[in-house]
Amino acid sequence: MTHTSTHSAKPLPRAPLYFAAMAALIIGVGVLQSWNSALAILNMGLISAIMALGVNLQWGYAGLFNVGIMGFTALGGLAVVLTAMPPVPAAWAAGGGRMIVALIVGLGSIVGAVLIYPRLPKTRVRGLFLTAFLVVGFFIYRTLFDPAVAAIEAVDASTAGYLGGMGLPVLLAWPVGALLAAGAAWIVAKTALGLRSDYLAIATLGIAEIILAVLKNEDWLSRGVKNVNGLPRPVPYEIDLQQSEWFLSLMAKIGADPVIGSSIFVKLLYAGFFLAVIGIIVLAMELALKSPWGRMMRAIRDNEVASEAMGKDVTGRHLQIFVLGAAIIGFAGAMMTTLDGQLTPTTYQPLRYTFLVWVMVIVGGSGNNWGAVLGGMLIWFLWVEVEPIGGWIVSVLTSGLAEDSALKAGLMERVAYMRYLTMGVILLVVLRFSPRGLLPEK
Asked: What pLDDT, on a 0 to 100 scale, did the predictor assign at position 11?
């Protein structure tokens, strides 16, 4: 009797294949378009991946629904201005001192009300006294704040009109962005966690709009819609490279144009920074996920009632992970503003900085850190490249039509909508055929 044994072939891991395909797409852009375009997509894709990691920490680990990603990203951008821009001496002389006093009075009123409230007798007088305390504090605050704002914004309003920052190295702004976002997240989560999950979503949406309104309207802080340009960089300027002997010698050896080469060199340096950050964050999250803390967080996510019955502090753990996720988003926001070289509050839109990041997490695979990285890079690539690809397809399909054809002109005008259609189709296809994402949670 002969015995035949069959061995099923072990399937190849999907993650390396997906990332190899992602690398091929970026290389394809470099070959067919330009290496500057390819590296620009890579850098913004890496930043988007870090944002997706922050959301994945909140949603994939704890099931917390954050729709205020835009606000935490904007706080990261503000941190770059407050940390790295030089101070404006004339503005500080005009109203800086009064502004500091006003902010201390405003914060002191809030802290004082919080401390006084539990110590007052539980009668009707408590509410009246607390209201009177806050009203008096508010009027004192506005009495100091309004003249200080007017004085600061009157100082060379066309080029300054704000206090500036601390003039520190720009790389320090990245952790400062994380701290600002974490502080805002703590305030929101302390208020909304423990209630129904939809309250957290409403609170995060509200805080995002408040943050954006402050950035747009408080010129003394961020120059508002006049933007802050010329932010410091952690890498050399292209013009400086083009005047450096070592760089010109390097370009001559490889036969490259110094102008194009300097732009590519700077983007490669940024890519090195961003890859290092992603490596550190993913390593830390993977270690945390496999630790007792990570197993506890997933147990809380899967069954809050059972976890609470076993003595776990569900609300406290949710607060912890929500703050950590927001800190990662704020860190990414500071990196993005550093890459852009300017703070432009009007560019923070929910479609780009909330909806698109959620698509990245869902498509990549909720609960999987490498899935979040893959989703961030893939969705950003498609967001950028779908429009030119769509334009090329339309031009090929309508090549037989006359140049003044109304159909051809109409189709070309609507190519810009291809990116929205593509995002919707990708989301539907992934949810239909791989509901847990391209790289599901293990």
From this structure: 52
